[in-house]
Amino acid sequence: MIRMLPISLVAIAILLSLASCKNIDKSETGTKATPEIKTSSPSSEEKNAARWKETTAKEFLKISDLKKKNPKEGIYETEGYIVGSVPVCDCPPEVDCDCDSPSITISEQNQPRKESRVLDGPREITIFTNPEGFKLGQKYRFKIEIPEKDSASEPIYYVDLVAYRFEQEVSAN
Predict the structure, then answer these.
(1) Kind of pairing, strands 124-128 and 139-146?
(2) Among residues 32, 47, 130, 163, which one has the fewest Cβ atoms lying within 10 Å of its Cβ?
(3) For residue 100, what are the contacts with CB-CB under 8 A and spacing of at least 6?
(4) pLDDT one-digit tens code per residue, 97-131
(5) Measured between alpha carbons, how far is 93 from 14 in angstroms, rounded to an integer?
């Protein structure tokens, strides 16, 4: 009986301390409530639309004018038809593949590219981006970034995608 007395006293002490606990309102302590966890992140379309709105291009140039002007760097706006694409490499990580960077090729003219990797002169440019979602033969307006070049005489063949907008649906001939 004597052994149970200390254990029962400890149990009673614990119960009393729990009963006296008070739920603290976070406003009393000056701390903020934990933010709600969002179950979904913004879609790629929403992210693209936001980038389009918040990015300012230096000017709009047709592809041929962009190539003639040959700026050394900067963000520009252009438009073109999707005439070719290179898909994302599907090699397993442990395999050393020699894949081209994923991209789309755009042109002022709506003519699908031949399998040649050489760009068709002054009217085509390749944009590094995942081609998923872009449709062959459709016209888009793009905000592109010209990577800094070592030389102003170095021609523009490849640019990076900043954002895009769908312009019109055109059937490929």
Answers:
(1) unpaired
(2) 32
(3) 86, 89
(4) 888 899 999 999 998 776 655 566 778 999 999 99
(5) 56
Say whether pLDDT at 14 is over 70: no
Q: Which domains does the chain have, with CATH numbers?
A: 61-168 (2.40.50.200)
b/e 67-80 (16+ beta carbons within 10 angstroms → b): beeeeeeebbbbbb
- Return phi, psi of residue 34, to 5°: -65, 130
Cβ–Cβ < 8 Å for 105, 117? no
CB 58 within 8 A of CB 74: yes
Give the start-end residues of each E strand in 26-87: 74-86
Q: What is the pLDDT of residues 28-80, one digit of tens each?
A: 444 444 445 555 677 888 998 999 999 999 999 999 999 999 888 899 999 99
Give yes or no for a contact between 162 and 75, defined as CB atoms under 8 angstroms apart.
yes
Q: Do 172 and 110 form a contact (C-beta atoms < 8 A)?
A: yes
Residues 129 and 47 sit within 8 Å (Cβ to Cβ): no
Cα gap 156→122, rounded to integer Å: 9
Q: Which residues pair with residue 164 across a beta bridge?
A: 142
